[in-house]
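Progress note, sequence design subtask.
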């Protein structure tokens, strides 16, 4: 059994998370900006399907991308250099979330539910959630969104309608974060795609320690322009 969060109740220690399923910590609570900032600060994120209660996770190990370890292939480097896509920040946050929530081949449903879109949009208004967008001939063709708290960025999801459009957005994100002194990008769970871009797994304890070193509490938000 996992604990049920009541309004205003703090999260359990992440060391209490289950090993099967890996990282399931607790259920319940709410998706207020305050609750979400508290969660991410402690290495916890919400992830659940339609019809389920809010489920909170903190898997061990944790997939991260250190900004200085991004791997950019030769072909992607050429695409970036050619300027095939125009990169923008925070100009279409809602649309990026909607695109990320769209059904994908081989995927049943989505975890980016309407209440999640509303919750992260509130974070965006407060300057905590951000989008990076790839545009082609005035059309949004790729992008990603996530949350920045201090010197940590928490990637949530990405989408691509054209070849390498989401990867170009990722390169732009990492370049911006590296220049601003970001120490770690949280990728949550391991995938071969993220590993090919330089992501790697680290112990949850090390990840939580990185967050302590990277986030001054309470963090402040700012718009990316």
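Output:
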């Amino acid at each position: 059994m996992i604990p049920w969060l009541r309004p205003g109740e703090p999260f359990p220690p992440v060391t209490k998370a289950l090993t099967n399923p890996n990282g399931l910590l607790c259920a319940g609570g709410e998706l207020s900006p305050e609750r979400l900032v508290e969660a991410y600060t402690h290495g916890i994120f919400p992830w659940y399907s339609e019809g389920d209660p809010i489920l909170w996770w903190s898997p061990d190990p944790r997939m991260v991308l250190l900004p200085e370890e991004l791997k950019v292939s030769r072909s992607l480097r050429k695409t970036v250099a050619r300027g095939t896509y125009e990169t923008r920040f925070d100009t279409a946050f809602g649309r990026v979330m909607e695109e990320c929530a769209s059904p994908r081949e081989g995927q049943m449903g989505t975890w980016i539910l309407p209440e999640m879109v509303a919750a992260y949009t509130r974070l965006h208004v407060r300057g905590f959630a951000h989008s990076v967008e790839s545009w082609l001939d005035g059309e949004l063709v790729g992008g990603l969104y996530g949350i920045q708290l201090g010197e940590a960025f928490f990637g949530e999801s990405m989408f691509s309608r054209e070849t390498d459009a989401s990867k170009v957005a990722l390169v732009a994100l990492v370049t911006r974060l590296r220049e601003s002194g970001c120490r770690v990008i949280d990728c949550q769970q391991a995938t071969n795609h993220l590993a090919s871009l330089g992501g790697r797994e680290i112990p949850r304890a090390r990840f939580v320690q990185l967050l302590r070193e990277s986030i001054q509490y309470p963090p402040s938000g700012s718009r990316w322009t």
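The radius of gyration is 17 Å. Work on this subtask will continue into the next period as scheduled.
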